[in-house]
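Objective 1b of the project was to move from sequence-level analysis to a structural picture of ligand recognition. The entry below was assembled by the postdoctoral researcher (A.K.) and checked by the PI before modelling. It contains the amino acid sequence of the target and the SMILES of the bound compound, zinc ion.
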Amino acid sequence: MLDVCLLGTGGMMPLPYRWLTALLTRYNGSSLLIDCGEGTQVAMKKAGLSAKPIDIMCFTHYHADHISGLPGMLLTMGNAERTEPLTMIGPKGLERVVNALRTIAPELPFEIRYLEINGAKQHFSINGYEIEAFRVNHNVLCYGYTLSLIHI
Ligand SMILES: [Zn+2]
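Corresponding predicted holo structure:
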């Protein structure tokens, strides 16, 4: 079964009762997070969700309200003694943006694998998730994601 938790639906700045846009799914012991703005960790704590099992992070785009929570999230995952690799999916520039944010979170006990989306659409199959990235309109390069599960 796929658990889906919409952690936030707000934009620009986190509010006490409306966190920034983020979504977490759980399937077969593997979590997937879409976007990680400021306060996403707090929204996860309030929902009783753990950061440690996040195996996949998808980013829609690199405006701060969608990614500025990443360094703290990575440190929390590291402090939870995560050692499994983390896969990140995002628009062109993913590794550059994440490395810039990692200036303040340089030492992590797990590897990060980067998958940059090429073109208007791209499909990824990871940990039982079928992930379809598709281009959407915004003033910077931006993607939406469709998630489904591999049925064996
Ligand atoms: Zn934006």
